[in-house]
Amino acid sequence: MNISSVIKKPLLTEKASFAKEKHGKYTFMVDSRANKFQIREAVESLFNVKVICVCTANYLGKKKRVGRSEGYKNNWKKAVVKIASGQEIQIMEEV
């Protein structure tokens, strides 16, 4: 899997910003086929930081309805990445 295709986008929520400030953890939406080793390699190479640990979670898409037709949103995967103390990811500060 290509390193640039592993990370889709950062997740910017209140819970994610609290974890970033207090614990140095950054949250990303990642490719559902990526494993922890690929996520670690992608974050370290793209942002030039040292990754301590990676935690992942799979989410099922919610059921949505428009009129009479029903469907589901896409399934997705979340990765919480803890980086070494004293380091930060600059792209998260700009947003």
Q: Would you kindly provide a written description of the structure presented here, covering whatever features stand out?
A:
The chain has about 100 residues and is α+β, with helices and mostly antiparallel strands. It has a single domain (about 5-95), classed as RRM (RNA recognition motif) domain (Alpha-Beta Plaits, 2-Layer Sandwich), CATH 3.30.70.330. About 35% of the residues lie in helices and about 35% in strands. The protein contains 4 helices and 6 strands; from the N terminus they run αβαβαββββα. The protein has helices spanning about 5, 15-25, 35-45, 90-95, and strands at about 5-10, 25-30, 50-60, 65, 70, 75-85. The strands form 2 sheets. The protein has a 4-stranded antiparallel β-sheet. A two-stranded antiparallel ribbon has the order 4-5. The longest helix has 12 residues, at about 35-45. The protein is globular and about 55 Å long. The chain starts with a helix and ends with a helix. The model has no long low-confidence stretch (mean pLDDT about 95).
From the alpha-carbon coordinates, what is the Rg to the nearest angstrom? 15 Å
Mind telling me the CATH class?
A: Alpha Beta
Mind describing the biggest β-sheet? Answer: 4 strands, antiparallel
Global geometry? globular
Question: Spans with pLDDT under 50 lasting ≥5 residues?
Answer: none
**Can you give the helix content as a percent range?**
25-40%
Q: How many strand segments? A: 6
Number of helices: 4
What would the CATH topology be?
Answer: Alpha-Beta Plaits
CATH superfamily assignment? RRM (RNA recognition motif) domain
Sketch the topology as an H/E string, one letter per element. HEHEHEEEEH
How many distinct domains? 1
Structural class: alpha+beta
For the largest beta sheet, what order do the strands appear in spatially? 1-2-6-3
Q: Quick check: average pLDDT?
A: 93
